[in-house]
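== Sequence entry ==
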Amino acid sequence: MEIIVEEVVVVVIMEVVVVVVVVVVVVVVVVVEVVVVVVIVVVVVVVVVVVVVVVV
């Protein structure tokens, strides 16, 4: 019985680790996408402001 219980515990721990890794990867990817979008928006706004200032 003890051997079976230990195997089950190991399997459960591995599954939990896999789930945690997947969640972390997804979160990192989402954060990176958000940062990239924010940077793009900031660059566009700065360029527009500079162009407006130069033209005016």
